[in-house]
Design goal:
Blueprint (H helix, E strand, L loop, with lengths): L2 H26 L3 H16 L6 E4 L6 E5 L1
Length: 69
């Protein structure tokens, strides 16, 4: 296996491991509103992002509303 392929595989494994840890925290949380502040910085780092916004369907099911910014 070429060195570049090994590096790509290592990065992919690190990403998947970090993502799995975040998903596990979400599943273990009592509520979404409780867990988001706790995982926000890790999520931003994982996605190499500056901000996160989560959307959900509104009560009418015909609208999308911002749940967390």
């Amino acid at each position: 296996m070429a060195k570049d392929d090994q590096e790509e595989l290592r990065r992919s494994l690190e990403f998947q491991t970090s993502l799995n840890a975040l998903v596990q925290k979400v599943h273990e949380a009592e509520s979404f509103n409780e867990v988001m502040p706790a995982i926000e910085q890790d999520l931003l780092a994982l996605l190499n992002a500056e901000r996160v916004t989560v959307y959900q369907r509104g009560r009418s099911q015909r609208e999308i509303v911002s749940k967390y910014k």
